[in-house]
Amino acid sequence: MLLSNPRLRDGVRDAAVSAGIALAVYVVAALPFGIADVWEQSYTYHQDARRAASHSGAFRKILDTLWDRDKLVVVALALAAVTWAVRCVLRRRAGRPGDRAMTIVVGFLVLWVVLLVALLVWEPAMWRAHVAHLVPPLALLAALKPPSWKVLLVAGVVTVPFAIVSNTSILWPGGYSGQEAALVSHLRTFPSDARFISDDPGLVWRSGHDAPGDFADTSYQRLDDGSITQASLVKAASAGDVCGVVVTSPVHFGRLGGLPDALAGHDYHPVQFGDHITLYERDTSFCTS
What we know:
Blueprint: H1 6-30, H2 35-48, H3 55-69, H4 71-93, H5 100-122, H6 135-144, H7 149-166, H8 168-171, H9 178-187, E1 195-198, H10 201-206, H11 220-224, H12 230-237, E2 242-247, H13 259-264, E3 269-273, E4 277-281, H14 284-287
Parallel strand pairs: 1-2
Antiparallel strand pairs: 2-4, 3-4
Helix pairs in contact: 3-5, 4-6, 4-7, 5-6
């Protein structure tokens, strides 16, 4: 019997306890907000959002993201795989039996990775941030049969600089420049209680202003699943404290073709910042108290 092996039995028990704790944490965290609402906003929301993306493109995005953001894990895993292979060869040559319990653990971790990759490739509403879910099983695989600390040290010295260079915008985010900086500077000239709607809310927040509550998240997904429409955007823009609507991309708010004319009906007029950014603004006498 497989479970007669104490190590395997302990591993199965620990895995079951971990899964139970994870489920309990989810339930406890969701209860104050309502299970139905959390399910609606966490799962149905993603299922209803369908951006056009190929499965092959999604797979390439997984590989690119892992290499860009998790070089250390990828390198450690590659070294562990080489170490595992070498030890298996040496074990066979010595005529020693394989470690069946370890093989089963590796099999479960590999299955975990395969299922996650399948989900990320198949579900078009998944984004680069979701690739982070691949890190735990990959890190566990890398930790099962790591190479010597000297090899890891050398690999770290070589890899860390590349990992830092690849993530400078995340580690040390810079300020805006060019047309973005010009827009932020212009928004700062409005009264402090003025609000703005933008398909890049960061521009609004950097200027010291707020967005209407339902437009703090203006992601592609919310347009794809109908949470944000031209009608809902114009209705929010007609509020007395909203002074402008920012369009930064033709595939974001720019896809709402009738938006300029609809906003014009509420005293908005366009102000261009460079080739890509348009601010539809109205005089502060119309939008602030």
